[in-house]
Predict the structure.
Amino acid sequence: MKRLIYIIVCCFLVWGCKKENGKKPYDFALYFDSSDEWHYEWKIYEKPKKNNYNQSDLPYTIDLEPGTGIYLGDHRALYKTDSEKLMGTFFIENTGVTLFSGTQSGSFEGYLTVEGSYKKHFREFIVEDGTFEFLWTNAEVYGMQDTVLKGKWTMKWK
């Protein structure tokens, strides 16, 4: 009888852990109002990976206690609010040709601020209609002024 109980408990533990964060990459997509699209591939974690994160490396506005955020990798994190929103600010860059730069190519970098409501299905996070602002910090290189660009963002399993 005890063996049967142990087997049942083990089965529930295995079934409950089959969908873990970090197993599949997420597509983090930025859709600019200018019709540009930037896609990033990140694995997300609800807990910091050992020796990967130092709280002082995260943005000072985010004080991540267990269960209050998700980590995107490379010292990036999103804060989870009680109203089921994800928000965060971090530095990103992308190389390529963009419409907002007059179709010039190069390395575009700046600070990204995102906010969006998320749905959680088991351990999967989904953001379908978030908003973002991108503070383009190296626009002078392209003969333009630093500016704030806006758009929508999504985050889904690939």
